Amino acid sequence: MPRGGRTLPGSQRRSSGLQLIGAAALSIGATPAAAPLDGAQILARATDAAGGEDWAKAKTLTLSGTAIFYGPSGAAPKTRADDYRMWRVFDPARTASHAAEGKVRIVARDHGRMLFTVGYDGTTTWNERGVIPKAEADAFWAANFGFGIIRHAADPGFKAERVPDDAIAGHRLYMVRLTDPKGGVTLFGIDRTSFAIRTMGFMTPRGWHVRTYDDFVRLARPRWLQARHVTLYYNGVKSNEVFWTNTRVNTVIDEALFAPPK
Fold first, then answer.
1. FRET partner for 224 with CA separation of 20 to 30 A, picked from 15, 62, 64, 210?
2. Alpha-carbon distance 115 to 129, whole Å?
3. H helices within the chain, ranges in order?
4. What is the pLDDT of residues 6-34, one digit of tens each?
């Protein structure tokens, strides 16, 4: 009601209402659109979704489960491991994306029979047949190491660039190209809704390597998002699948696990 209690005629009331609606529309239209996320911001959110500092600064990781390995041709699995295990000690100062770092040991068994094992103690790489020459070892790790570098995306010397978005298995992805200080490049696919890391890819001596991650489980203490289904591809062909059933973070690992056999 206008000042003094006088009621406006109908046409004036309609005019006043239209002015209010117009003012509201102008106000809404003046709200700035949210700026698109850049590569660094996307990877920062991915780090938080993965577990934040607990995940980024983890000291050790122990995983166990099963695995399926495929041959270079044919559709049927070549071998299966009903006992597949990995132990990791992380290097907090890592700068190279696709080189051996920290310490690692992987063991694959089927009904108690050793299929293969490989280890790296920080200096020497070895398998069930003995010590692997350095050039061969470097090529092996260059075709396998790559995921963990995302933990260092915010460190000095790293560059995160957003590239065209994509999708995988119905999940819309932000795609980010991460370049390390030595020029190593890794392409990460980050879920646009959950910010989980759903895929990664990089060039290797075996060709273009892609991993996909699915069936996530969340640990509370420490905060940790673990993919229980990991699929590995080389040049677009599926190489192996891993199904992790047990995850332990920051437990003490016996150093003897990483030592080459005498």
1. 210
2. 12
3. 10-29, 39-50, 53-56, 134-142
4. 444 554 444 444 444 444 444 444 545 67
Q: Which residues of 111-129 are buried (b: 16+ CB within 10 A; e: fewer)?
A: eeeebebbbbbeeebbbee
Residues with Cβ within 8 Å of 241's Cβ and at least 6 positions away in sequence, in order, are 67, 68, 229, 230, 231, 232
Two structure tokens written together for 221: 């203490």
What CA–CA distance (Å, rounded) separates 83 from 106? 11
> Residue 155's Cα: distance from chain center in Å?
17
Query: By the 8 A CB rule, do 209 and 203 touch?
Result: yes
CA distance 181 to 57: 19
> Residue 160: beta bridge partners?
178
Of 101, 236, 80, nearest to 182 by C-alpha is 101
Measure the CA angle with vertex 89, ends 124 and 64; round to 5°.
Answer: 105
Q: Which amino acid is at 186?
A: T
User: Could you report the per-residue pLDDT of 185-242, keeping only the tens digit for each?
Assistant: 999 999 999 999 999 999 999 999 999 999 999 999 999 999 999 999 999 999 999 9
Q: Contact 202/146 with Cβ under 8 angstroms?
A: yes
